[in-house]
Hints:
By secondary structure, the protein is an all-alpha fold. It is 78% helix and 0% strand.
Amino acid sequence: MLTSIVNFIVEFVAAWGYFGIFAMMFLESSFFPFPSEVVMIPAGYLASKGEMSFAIAFACGLAGSVAGAVFNYYLCYFFGRKFIDKFGKFIGVTNEKFAKFEAFFNKHGEISTFNCRLIPGIRQYISLPAGLAKMNLARFCTFTALGAGIWVLILMLLGYFIGENQELIKEKLHIITFFLLGFVLLLSALYILHIKRKNR
């Protein structure tokens, strides 16, 4: 069953090409979240076979991630909390969840739009409180692109080097996710320390 699903996704990415990568990563990063692994790992695998350009596939994945994040950003930028209250449940964001995302953003500041791009299950939603706070768009896109770029690159490298071994991918992805969380915590601590010193 798993092999059939993986084969279908690889065939889908191959058939739709770079536009398919952009479109699926846009959805993954916005209102229809699903694992980005199912897009970028097959893209990396196809690149290893010479059926795609690694650089172009990476650029499309990154562009889709940023575009989807900006879409979420503008939902709250223009429509505010009323949008979440009315439609949040349809995109998997309850008022309780949004309150947590907003508290996290308010506590850690703009750097959270970078950090959270590296945390599964959260990366799609940090754009919402950023939009509500009307964070500077250029800074939002920069932080989002940095975080998303690291994640997209890791997934593509996994697909490029071990794309045929699904069990090994699962094992490596868990290890990478663990180290990324440690990296996020360390970076957050350094950023907070920098801000405190700057304020002094």
